[in-house]
Design a protein that fits this description.
Length: 225
């Protein structure tokens, strides 16, 4: 009989492979955060040459592709239904589109503005998956509560932060009000974005642990002759 704590998942085929993708996505996401910070700290004040910026774009494209098998594997824990099935394919399509826009920007096929719109749109769709999926996961007894709360927070922070950030720039009224709204949005969005790689790291541990627990449970001790 298999026992699972709150930080374990019942194993499904593909968990071990998805765990490897999750760890790789986490590392890629951390590198993305670091290169974006380096771009704004070093390259933006100097006006170039944006090596960190280009690296960040490439990492964003890779991250979106690495995220797909992880999202699909975790999504398998959701109840079957047309709504969840549609949500799955929408987030996969958005991830592919976000990845493509990043690589097209790197190779200078797409301009910065349309690429950014595509990337932010993909991020918003992924955030929607995080919010809706983890709301359902938190109703289940066999899904880790901490991972569920983290995913729900990331989704909510991005879905609230991204629109507020844009609203602050177009909102009529005093500059203080506009900057306050934009600042709240940027803070929420940035918090969700920075925590994103951590969710993949946690997902990698949970998916990998499910595999390890099943493997251990299936191993019998040698009998004395």
């Amino acid at each position: 009989m298999k026992h699972h704590s709150r930080e374990q998942l019942p194993e499904l085929p593909g968990d071990h492979m998805a765990s490897a993708f999750a760890y790789t996505a986490a590392a890629t996401g951390v590198a993305g955060v670091a290169t974006l910070a380096a771009m704004y700290a070093i390259e933006v004040p100097k006006g170039g040459p944006y090596v960190f910026g280009t690296t960040n774009d490439a990492l964003g494209g890779i991250f979106n592709l690495l995220a797909i098998p992880v999202i699909l594997q975790v999504h398998r824990r959701l109840p079957a239904g047309s709504g969840n099935e549609a949500l799955k394919w929408v987030v996969v399509a958005a991830s592919v589109a976000g990845s493509a826009s990043s690589f097209l920007l790197v190779f200078r096929v797409l301009e910065f503005a349309p690429s950014t719109i595509a990337s932010v749109s993909a991020m918003a769709v992924q955030a929607l998956w995080f919010l809706l999926a983890h709301r359902q996961f938190l109703k289940r007894q066999d899904f880790p509560r901490s991972l569920g709360r983290l995913g729900k927070f990331i989704g909510a922070a991005l879905l609230v932060g991204l629109p507020l950030s844009g609203l602050g720039y177009v909102l009529p009224g005093p500059d203080a009000l506009r900057w306050t709204v934009a600042g709240i949005g940027i803070a929420l969005g940035a918090t969700g974005w920075v925590l994103w790689p951590y969710w993949y790291f946690r997902a990698g541990r949970v998916l990998g642990h499910a595999h390890e627990m099943t493997t251990t449970a299936g191993t019998t001790a040698p009998q004395a002759g």
